[in-house]
Amino acid sequence: RRLHRSRARPPRTKMASLGQYLDAAAHAVSVKDSATLALLFDVDSVHALGAVRSALGDRGMNVGELCEEKVGAYAPWDEIFASHCQCLGANAEGRYDDAFVAMQATIAAFVKDFRAQDTAWSLDALMNLVRGAVALATRADDEAERVGRQRKDSRLGDAGAALMLVYRNTANTSVWEKKSQCLFLVISLFKIYFKLNTLHLCKNLINAVNLPTFPTFDTFPVAQRVTYAFYVGRLAVFDDDFSVAEQHLEYAFRRCKSDSRRNKTLILRYLLPVKLLMGKMPTANLLQKYGLGEYVDVVSAMKSGNVRMLNDALKTHQISFIKQGTFLVLEKLRNIVLRTLFQKVHAFSAEKNPAKGNQVNLHMFLAALKWCGCDMDIDEVEMIVANLIFKKFVKGYISHKSRVVVLAKAGAFPAISYDDDRPKVAYLQN
Fold first, then answer.
1. What pTM was estimated for this model as a whole?
2. Contacts 24+ apart (CB under 8 A), 211-217
3. Is 107 a residue whose pLDDT tops 60?
4. Does an H or E element contain 196, and which?
5. What is the DSSP letter of 236?
6. Burial of 204 (0-12, 13-18, 19+ CB in 10 A)
């Protein structure tokens, strides 16, 4: 079943003071007003920040006592809001590291109460805390880098630990409504792990999504399913698991909104290299539509077997490809381009000497490579062809003595495939 979460609305009463802010908090908790509670836990809410700023100049105010006075009847919410007020105050003053530490305490106290609840009425507020934790951790790390402060572990990594605590308490529960944000939390953790380059931590999350206890994939919003498939596809690209990468990235691209040009382009930056490795060429219209001009020469080199053109294209756009994390994948295209060139040499040789149509003299292939700007000797050429045969791009064998490649009479150039024995993720077929 699908679960639709309400969006936070600003409270009708203007919160000009911290007391009014806490009055609104007490009322939201008493009537279980999820929308107002979510807004109160938004670290960048102008209402919440304004209320806290009004109290910053009052050094005689004891925030903890005020929270107990206003919200103490709904314990442990007084403790939760006391921590959150400290977070808001530090955020208002630009002390992002202190704000994040207070946010950690807020989340820990919130989750402790959330775990004991038999409903998910406060889930929207918890998700706002999750967003706030990531935002404050990012600001704290940026601030530390700006002032040159050294720290063993990043605050973003600490935010990942806080998010994992939240995830465990939403996923491992019998209350179905609490599970409705599981995929959002998985995606949020993906973003952190990719930014910190701790990609190995993604594997456990993927395994969790595939468990039968995880909500059915198609019950989540399309945007979340697309984002999840995009990250799983990217991870598969980095793992050289190209069949799985193609499956997930294709899923993300097909289901991404047609007017989301930027997102579709981002998906294509990883899907295109995978498709090219599969020997599948994009159209010129596709490259033009999504502004992917860096692939024009790459595709031309693939079609013509021009090794020099491929090398030049990779060199020209090397920095861009490295930043995207696709350069090493694109380098693997050399084998495909070499196979195309070898295929053309074979066609020329067969036309010239039909009686030996399934044989290719390595010296002829050497001449073609030299024309493409590849300076090598006959032994290196033999190694290239041996590698193509080993990788099953070409079917045949090499006669070392006569320097001739004897090709299979049928299927000498089989379809390119990277399939393996790993099971596919069935729900992506929905």
1. 0.84
2. 213/171, 214/171, 214/179, 214/182, 215/176, 215/179, 215/180, 215/182, 215/183, 216/427, 217/183, 217/427, 217/428, 217/430
3. yes
4. helix 182-196
5. H
6. exposed
